[in-house]
Amino acid sequence: MQGDIVSSLLLPAALAFIMFSLGLGLTPADFGRIVKQPRALLVGVLCHFVLLPLACFAMLKVAGIGGAFAVGFMILAACPTGTTSNLLTYIARGDVALALSFTAVASVLTIFTLPLLVSFALGHFAGSEQVVQAPVGAMMKQMVLMLGLPVAIGMTLRHLKPVVGQRIEGVCTKIASVLFILIVIAAVAKNWALLTANFTTLAPFALALNVIMLACGFGVAWLARLSRQQSVTLGIETAIQNGTLAMVIGSSVLQNDAYALPGALYGVLMYVSGLAFAYGMRSVLSRDRAGAPATAPGAGTR
């Protein structure tokens, strides 16, 4: 969007509001749960911050996708979990407390990991097209302003004015959802020709990446002997990405519309497989609860 008011002001402002609405739903206890269930959180960090970027990189190589679109998908893979992952976890009857904890942790870790991964992606996939100097320091500052600060403000308001925070949380969440839809529509409309010319390549890749990461997050958690409820949660947390942030990084920070398209496309398609996974696992977990015999305290359903 080349420095226009949409990319320089409206997109970052919308993202900041979305993160503020996320902060309204978090409490210090969500971070405190790290001590109580460190294994589950460590598995989530492994899946989301290590396996997801590696899988995305490997799939791009196998699919033969390079250039700006490859950079866009790597930006997406570097983003934290999406704000609706908690809702999908609730729908699936997963471990909502774990989802909240992981969302909080991921929002903080991304401030440091995203600039480094984006810098690598630019050098690897776009280096042959142009001389690329990734603004790592600037990106870290913007991550603090667009992610850390709004979440902190939301959490502070929730802590100091709990009644007010709880009252406006629902409204802010609805507004955030509308903002996300408007951002996607604007990105798609502005780059309609570019999207339609590459849809048959980008859409199957985005959907395949989402399905693979749902399975990967669930499978690794299961292999780590976490409960089925926690495994479902980490499958969702691994695959549901903050597409809004990916679009902001591509169009506002790096000033290239093509970088933003994978985030816009994935941000829509991830709900197709994500909802199917959530409702499918909800049925499985419901049957487990209805028919499973009593287990010893702390034992997970596998």
TrEMBL record:
Parts of the chain that traverse the membrane: 6-28, 40-60, 66-89, 96-122, 142-160, 172-193, 205-224, 231-253, 259-279
Lineage, broadest ranks: Bacteria, Pseudomonadati, Pseudomonadota, Betaproteobacteria, Burkholderiales
Q: From the Swiss-Prot or TrEMBL record, state where the protein is found.
A: Membrane
Q: Which GO terms describe its cellular component?
A: membrane
Q: What membrane topology does the UniProt entry give?
A: Multi-pass membrane protein
> Glycoprotein: present as a keyword of the record?
no
What protein is this chain from?
Bile acid:sodium symporter family protein
Per UniProt, the keywords (alphabetical) are: Membrane, Transmembrane, Transmembrane helix
